[in-house]
Design a protein that fits this description.
The radius of gyration is 19 Å and the shape is globular. The protein starts with a strand and ends with a helix. By secondary structure, it is of the alpha/beta class. Helix 3 packs across helix 9, helix 6 crosses helix 7 and helix 7 packs across helix 8. The strands form 3 sheets. A 5-stranded mixed sheet has the order 3-2-1-4-7, sandwiched between helices. The protein has a 5-stranded mixed sheet with strand order 10-9-8-11-12. 38% of the residues lie in helices and 22% in strands.
Length: 286
């Protein structure tokens, strides 16, 4: 019988979970509400689901992908306002005590990157940078399969970079998909509709998308020039725009990176929400 691992993906509103075996087959998918982490609901749900799975079959390990900065001890070191009262939550210690199994806890963008190295667009890459484009912007970097998080665990906090004093905005405030949404809303269309129209060369959608890609590229150019990764993975829901997004963003990057220095291969994630599921247990799959 294949060893089974329980993988969690903790977001602001939903906890997704599944079983994954050594052959990377995903089964027993499910999801529950975080209930805004009221009265420690996230840890309660993680424990309840773990015990439920253990009552049904043997598990070899548990992996948790989660929003927030994760300390070396598997505790939430820092969490933004999207998950109230989450900072200080001892996920690893609590689940280890409840399950008597090895537990690995990783930041969700780190997990997305690890998922791509296990089963996605960066399986054979030696250096990979992953940027998650969503309501905010997060980054992750790995060399030879090893995450680099900096001396204090705060590396790749790309969303907070490039602060403009003139309008008091950070990189993510100008380039996250939330910013794109605000650009298209006056025209009565959604982000998805804007991309559909842009694909058909319709204005003003095409110009809006191109301008947004310029904003995204302005920040990513710094990453490429400083780290020079072999592969850059675009994550988040917008990655579903696939080759169209990659093409536009590559064009934008050429404006910010000198000729001859744009050698990184840009790819959109093909794993969607499964990237974090695979990444949560990547430690066990390798």
């Amino acid at each position: 019988m294949q060893e089974q691992f329980l993988a969690f993906d903790v977001g602001g509103t939903t906890i997704k979970y599944a079983l994954v075996d050594k052959q990377q087959t995903i089964t027993n998918r499910g999801s529950v509400s975080t209930d805004h982490n009221r009265d420690g609901a996230i840890l309660t749900q993680l424990t309840r689901i773990t015990q439920q799975m253990l009552s049904q079959q043997l598990l070899a390990g548990i992996g948790v992908s989660t929003a927030g900065i994760v300390g070396e001890d598997g505790e939430i070191k820092y969490a933004g306002p999207t998950i109230p009262n989450y900072q200080g939550t001892p996920i690893k210690a609590h689940l280890q005590s409840a399950s008597h199994l090895p537990v690995d806890v990783v930041n969700d963008v780190d997990a997305a990157l690890l998922g791509e190295t296990v089963a996605g667009q960066a399986v054979h890459a030696t250096s990979v940078y992953c940027v998650a484009l969503g309501t905010g912007i997060g980054g992750a970097f790995a060399i030879n399969g090893q995450l680099y998080s900096g001396a204090h665990g705060n590396a790749n906090s790309i969303g907070y970079t490039s602060y403009h004093e003139s309008d008091q905005t950070t990189y993510e405030q100008r380039a996250a998909t939330l910013s794109l949404q605000s650009m298209v809303e006056p025209y009565g269309i959604s982000v998805i509709e804007a991309f559909e129209q842009a694909r058909n060369n319709q204005q003003p959608a095409l110009t809006i998308i191109q301008n947004w890609c310029d904003n995204v590229a302005a920040g990513l150019a710094n990453v490429l020039l400083i780290l020079d990764p072999e592969v850059l993975i675009l994550g988040g829901a917008v990655a579903k725009q696939s080759d169209f997004l990659v093409s536009l963003l590559t064009q934008s990057l050429s404006k910010f990176v000198p000729d001859g220095l744009l050698n990184t291969v840009v790819r959109a994630s093909a794993l969607s929400n499964d990237a974090q599921i695979y990444g949560a247990i990547a430690h066990f799959l390798k």
